[in-house]
């Protein structure tokens, strides 16, 4: 099994440019054999609360077409973040785009302070991913701060926990501590994708990473670099490599 996490510096509000960057990362991940790629929170638009209603996606949004085509052509599951409008309600969500050309939506369950003024939060849209006889549960940013969230993933017998986050430079160390502890406590492999660079006026912390189900850190990207973390399971152990943008 080969998985990948994208660490990107999205241009806030420039969805066209951000989709181009997504396509580039998907292509590189597929070239390296990845069967799944996860992007950070709100990766398609950049993190934005105030303008989210102007940038929001829908499930059948034509702006997702390039990602759908790539997922099919490269036989890779793509997890991309966005503000998502469902009927008239706004959520922070992740699109799960399958090679079969189907899409599922996961919505963030626990808000960061202030997000409740712009978005709704729900556990009703909480799909899992099946890949190579393994089950994957998703999380978005502040979800990981609530211990109920990984506990529920464990109860559904998920063996992988995929976290799409926007943690700052000052907060990413705590993020690593939290996620490594979940990996060890629940015997779940944990793959995390974060921004790099400045977003929403804050310096992102980067350090996208993977921990195996003992809590061991297998690989991470540095704080400032845009690139990919690719992890592969060989027999019973994992190995990781970073592919930094040139």
Tell me what you see in this structure.
The chain has five helices and 15 strands. By secondary structure, it is α/β, with parallel strands linked by helices. The strands form three sheets. Strands 5-4-3-2-1-14-15 form a seven-stranded mixed sheet. Strands 6-7-8-9-12-13 form a six-stranded mixed sheet, with helices on one face. Strand 7, helix 4 and strand 8 form a beta-alpha-beta unit. The two termini are 26 Å apart.
| Portion in strands | 25-35%
The major β-sheet equals: 7 strands, mixed
What's the arrangement of strands in the largest beta sheet?
A: 5-4-3-2-1-14-15
**Uncertain stretches of 5 or more adjacent residues:** none
Mean of all residue-level pLDDT scores: 97
Query: What is the molecular shape?
Result: globular
Q: What gap, in angstroms, lies between the N and C termini?
A: 26 Å
| Estimated radius of gyration | 16 Å
Percentage of residues in helical conformation: 10-25%
- Secondary-structure element string: EHEHHEEEEEHEHEEEEEEE
Give the helix tally: 5
Overall structural class, as computed from helix and strand content, comes to alpha/beta
Oligomer: single chain
Please tally the β strands and state the result: 15
């Amino acid at each position: 099994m080969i998985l990948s996490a994208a660490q990107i510096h999205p241009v806030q509000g420039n969805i066209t440019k951000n989709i181009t960057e997504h396509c580039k990362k998907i292509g590189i991940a597929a070239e390296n054999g990845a069967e799944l790629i996860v992007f950070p929170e709100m990766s398609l638009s950049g993190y934005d609360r105030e303008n989210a209603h102007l940038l929001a996606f829908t499930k059948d949004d034509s702006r997702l077409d390039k990602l759908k085509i790539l997922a099919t052509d490269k036989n890779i599951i793509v997890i991309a973040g966005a503000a998502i409008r469902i009927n008239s309600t706004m959520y922070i969500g992740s699109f799960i785009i399958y090679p079969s050309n189907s899409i599922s939506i996961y919505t963030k369950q626990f808000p960061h302070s202030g997000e409740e003024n712009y978005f709704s939060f729900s556990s009703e849209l909480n799909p899992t991913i099946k890949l190579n006889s393994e089950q994957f549960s998703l999380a978005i940013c502040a979800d990981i701060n609530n211990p109920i969230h990984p506990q529920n993933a464990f109860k559904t017998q998920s063996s992988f926990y995929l976290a799409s986050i926007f943690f700052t430079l000052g907060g990413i160390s705590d993020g690593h501590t939290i996620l490594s502890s979940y990996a060890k406590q629940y015997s779940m492999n944990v793959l995390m994708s974060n921004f790099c660079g400045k977003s929403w006026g804050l310096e992102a912390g980067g350090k996208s990473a993977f921990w195996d189900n003992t809590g061991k850190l297998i690989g991470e990207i540095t704080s400032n670099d845009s690139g990919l973390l690719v992890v592969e399971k060989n027999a019973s152990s994992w190995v990781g490599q970073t592919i930094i943008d040139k």
